[in-house]
Write a structure and sequence with these properties.
Layout (H helix, E strand, L loop, with lengths): L1 H37 L5 H15 L2 H13 L5 H22 L6 H15 L4 H31 L3 H6 L5 H15 L2 H13 L5 H22 L7 H21 L1 H11 L3 H20 L3 H11 L2 H5 L17 H32 L2 H26 L8 H36 L7 H27 L2 H30 L3 H5 L1 H19 L2 H7 L32
Helix pairs in contact: 1-2, 1-3, 1-6, 2-4, 3-4, 3-10, 3-11, 4-9, 4-11, 4-13, 4-14, 5-6, 6-9, 8-10, 9-10, 9-13, 10-11, 10-13, 11-13, 12-13, 16-17, 16-18, 16-19, 17-18, 18-22, 19-20, 19-22, 20-22, 20-23
Amino acid sequence: MQTLLNLLASVALLVWGTHIVRTGILRVYGTNLRRVLSKSVSKRGSAFLAGLGVTSLVQSSSATALIASSFVSQNLIALAPALAIMLGADVGTALMAQVFSLDLSWLSPLAIFFGVVFFLSRKNTRAGQLGRVAIGLGLIILALQLIQIATQPIVTAAGTRVLFGSLSGDPMLDMLIGALFTVLSWSSLAVVLLTASLAASLVISVPVAVCLVLGANLGSGLIGLLATFNMPGGGRRVALGNLCFKLSGCVIFSLALPLALQAIAYLDEDPRRQVLHFHVIFNVVLALGFLFFTDRIAALVERWFPEATVAGGQVVEPRHLDGGALVTPTLALSNAARETLRIGDTIEQMLNGLLEVIRTNDEKRVDELIRLDDDVDRLYTAVKLYLTQISREALDERDARRWAEIISLTINLEHVGDVIERILTDIRDKKIAHKLSFSEAGIEELANLHAKLVTNLRLGLSVFLTGDVKSAQMLLAEKERFRDLERSYASQHLDRLADQSVQSIETSSLHLDIISDMRRINSFFCSTAYPILEQAGQLRKSRLRPEAPTGEATGNFAKGDLAAGPK
């Protein structure tokens, strides 16, 4: 029993070490790694090498899959180069398994010692995070040594041969066990290293170990699929395509298993090295076999898994951002403005759903509305990237001003989506979860503020579209009215608290937070008026009144004269 616990603890330490290295590298170099991947997609070869290099650093093809999938979901790269990145990532994982199989016992204590020193003394710096990575590397090497020690008693145990002998007759069962263990440990690298150690200790035969490695590769594809399960857009197709690679490879190699066993036996007599050589051969063969056909495979994946099926529902994607219009800045700006109006329409859907949730406590509706914020984020990212592709040098003064108006409104609407999402989350956690409800007077106040928000959103989008000065003045006046109404309702709520209204007391904090967030949302909507009024000369340079003759400030403010943005 003690021996089994030692083995399980060693495996857990191995998994934990790979996790520490992965998270440490991503914290230090995450932005740079994303930049490398995003800029390496012009050719299959460069995409493949980028995936190989990034995965060698983070020691996790799943982490690389998440990065590549996020790029595809945001339309930053196409599916075909993302699949090439994944082929490189799989080879990178296999090569790292070879590295860790070397005798690095001398490195483990040094890595752990210096890693702890740097991490504890400079925790919040880059050096501290690199110390974290060193700790992880040391733990991986130490865990492999502990696995070798723990498996020695198992080899001599009476029931060991019988137990592992049951795996030797069914390659399919062995592959399923390898895949299951990989998913449970969330690391194909850890499973491959463990399998190689077991083979080296003669606990399992090389044919069984090879089948377990096939299962580990299949499990790696499943991990990528699970990690991108809720990813919007086409991001999940990256994991699906990579899983197709793995499935194809498992089928081919299981049919050619005798030939593969002869090949690795020819390369090395050591069972450990044979297992690791097979792991590399498997992924290299997949890369050579599929790298030059990623375009066709991407087309097949897109055909087999339509976007709505991949995301689990209807996915909102940009409609008006025509890349061919970028050579004509005026037309491109018009396209961006139309897409921005779509963001506004989605925000209005979220607002209408918000009032529904306030009234009904519908938790399912909360989840639906939070998913709408993902649509807002997707459209916002698309518009922002589209605008950055417009040559600023080619814009005259009027178009440059319009460019700034569009980017400003998209940013404000994205912020509004985040605020609404936070309100919905608070309602779910603080109100729905505890079966609470607002008072009738409180609901009426929130409904009135909500109606004002919808009206001001529509007016703000109209001002954005037409640039009408009178409408902009109306919008700014509505901002003042909304602020006065918000203060009045906050005061009325405090009066209800003084009257010991139970519903008001139970939901007081949430009610006041929602009112405050609504005022903030309204400020975002009304900020559309400022560039229009500033261009028309309708704004003062300062909201402060001139100093009194005595040199003392009056302490009064002019309403609506100027605000740089939401307060």
